[in-house]
Amino acid sequence: MELTHRAQRAGRLSGFLRGEMAMSTGLMNRLKWTGALLVNGERARTNYPVQPGDVICVVLDEPQPEYPAEDVPLRIIYEDQHILVADKPAGMLIHPSPHRNTGTFANAVLGHYVRTGQHSAFHPATRLDRDTFGLVLLGKNSHVHQRLSDLHGQGLLIKTYHGLIFGAMPEHSGRIDLPIGRRPKPSLLRYIDPQGQPSLTEYQTIRQSGKWSLLSLRPVTGRTHQLRVHCAALGCPILGDPQYGSPESLALSQELGLETQQLCAHRLVFPHPMTGENMDLVSGMEVWQEKTEENGDRRDS
User: How far does Cα 153 stand from its chain's mean position?
Assistant: First the structure.
């Protein structure tokens, strides 16, 4: 993949890479020894004196991954030459591990790139637990991935989840401000810990019945298992969640036939990392919802 820019001023090449092309210092330093930096088609060092009208080109060749591409159906919500947004199903790991390098979301994405002739790598800007489903945002190269990471760090990447919980929250909408810590290893679980990391979740009730509620959840911070831990801490575990569920929530999950946790990465709002266009993307997947005509549930406005 190539990134190009026509200079409108004079200056060192490094200034254009960091400024107009918003390249991280780490990536720039890695590329300057590989012949990937070109000015008017000729290889150039970062101290090259660029003149107005010169064409700067950065060649981004991604290394081949150690895991295979797999021909797995991929539900694509949005794609262009820079980013990909697709729905991950429940039960699928995001990334291969030393113990498993097939059947993951990364294998499926790589298979899509191979089928469509794209020389791109797997760079997830958002991640989901194995049993959480819905939107995953990826950059197609390390430069775009860094731009997405910067947007995330600036609070410009807004993620909204839909979660089906046991019971109802104390208020129709509100904030859960409870610190989260990690249980002693080898456990991977988290818990509410006064000495843990500050963690904040905003929620709003979308629908409520006598036994369950459908929530819109926004993780202001991004702690591991944050939404699941916060909902459980208020006595309203995510339905279908065997790790943080209560006996009551697990019993209701079984009654409703829910075999996986009902937490969906529903919506992503962010400025496009290369064009600045406002992106507002919604998942094609949803948590379980009982048919309104069969249960007479009320909708809250």
Answer: 13
CA dihedral of 81, 85, 91, 93, whole degrees rounded to 10: 50
HSE at residue 51, side-chain half, CA atoms within 13 A, is 1
pLDDT of residue 296: 39
Q: Are 5 and 56 in contact (CB under 8 A)?
A: yes
Active site residue 129: yes
Torsion of CA 27, 157, 89, 80, to 10 degrees: -60
* Half-sphere exposure in the Cβ direction for 127 (13 Å, CA): 18
What is the length of the chain?
A: 301
For residue 33, the tally of other CB atoms under 10 A from its CB is 9
Residue-wise pLDDT for 116-129, tens only, equals 999 888 999 999 99
Indicate which residue of 61, 80, 87, 129 is catalytic: 129
Could you report the per-residue pLDDT of 242-275, keeping only the tens digit for each? 999 999 999 999 999 999 999 999 999 999 998 8
Q: Distance between CA atoms of 164 and 198, rounded to whole angstroms?
A: 24
pTM as predicted: 0.86
